[in-house]
Input
Amino acid sequence: MVKGPNVMLGYLNMEKESAEVLENGWYNTGDIARVDEDGFLTITDRLSRFSKIGGEMVPHVRVEEVYQRALDTTERVVAVTSLPHPKKGEELVVVYLAEAGSPQKLHQIIANSNLPNMCKPRPDNYIKVDSIPVLGSGKLDIMKLRKIAAAARKASED
Output
């Protein structure tokens, strides 16, 4: 939540959307952040990078960190998104690069982790791509990532 003279007053001609993000002059950015011991603010994630699975909020970054630690890399070689699930609400999908390894290897990493089962993607929810989609800013392109997962699911159903 941020507040100040530089914060927008609302979305133009969009009262409902403005009411969803503004409260008593505070703007809910949707960012998740931490403040370090020196008072510096670091944005670490976005609320949109969570999935609601069986009524629980599952952070995508937590799942990605398990892969990155096991693969001993700081490069983004996997990205987690979600797709609708008829019973659980959503389910996790992993988009990965060839250098991350096989889907079997990735699934073994997550299966052997101490994450709760709801945080573990199913063995058939791994999608190999040539590149992880990013925005011009270098941030993960969440919308494109979800579209890749949806297209892969549709192709597998056809």
